[in-house]
Amino acid sequence: MTTEAESLKERVLQGPRPVHVGIIMDGNGRWAESRGLPRLEGHRAGAESVRAITTAAREVGIQALTLYAFSTQNWGRPKREVLGLMNLLRSFLLQEKATLIENDIRLCSIGEIGRLPGRVRRALEEVQEASAGGRSMTLTLALSYGGQEEIVHAARALARQVRAGALDPEDVDVRAFQRALWSGSLPPLDLCIRTSGEHRVSNFLLWHLAYAEIVVSSELWPDFREEAFFSALLEYRRRERRFGLTGAQIRERST
Asked: What is the pLDDT of residue 245?
């Protein structure tokens, strides 16, 4: 970690931090292409950023970190790239198993996990079971995940309950709907970070983004390390979160 990153880390530790941070990890392919490398090399470099940011998040007390690792739409990429991504994911999971356990981090996943290749699912289940006792931080990987797909899945689950007579339609409220989401057990999303300078949410945690703060970094994901992460946390601290109220009401409540 650089001296500047250490300085930023100290500033982060001196004040309030978000409980739940989500990251849209964008720019791996462009990072590789700008260097004349195969796109998979960008994903491999991006895995190093995952390690660095996961460790940094735990060190500053982030309770939940959700990483957008593979979207539902990513299945439409060239088969060779998808195969390489799946192999890289499996290797990453098995390599990081011991580190997660040592750092008291619990691994979870959300998405259409059944679509993943069997060898990847088995590795994912193995690491999730081994790290289930982690209490310092929850690391959630969004795999074969889409925010719209998640909402449709929840709506269908509730509809089946209503049809079976187990749920009154009038009891379907915000809390009931959230419980039906893949991500329903996660705390409210406080901060969403998007790398690569793109200003879109790309179908990520759409339900949770309702009142989340969004910080866009110009860094491509393989270049996004501790300094950029801590800077995003400090930017979050400068925001006034109003949740539909006025600034005056918020200030009055804090006095």
From this structure: 52
Residue 117, number of CB atoms within 10 A of its CB? 14
Structure tokens at 232: 């995003």
User: Where is 162: in which H helix or E strand?
Assistant: helix 147-163
The CATH code belonging to domain 17-146+188-254 is 3.40.1180.10
Sheet bearing 191-194, strands edge to edge: 105-110, 137-145, 64-71, 20-24, 191-194, 213-216
- Is pLDDT at 241 greater than 80 in this prediction? no
pLDDT digits (tens, 9 = 90+) for 19-71: 999 999 999 999 999 999 999 999 999 999 999 999 999 999 999 999 999 99
d(CA 82, CA 71): 11
Beta strand ranges found along the chain (DSSP E):
20-24, 64-71, 105-110, 137-145, 191-194, 213-216
- Type and span of the H or E element at 102: helix 79-102
What does the alpha-carbon distance between residue 43 and residue 27 come to, in Å, rounded to a whole number?
A: 9
The catalytic residues are: 26, 74
Reported as type and span, the H/E element at residue 52 is helix 39-59
157: CB partners within 8 A, 6+ apart: 180
Position 1 scores a pLDDT of: 74
The pLDDT confidence band at residue 2, using thresholds 50, 70 and 90, is: confident
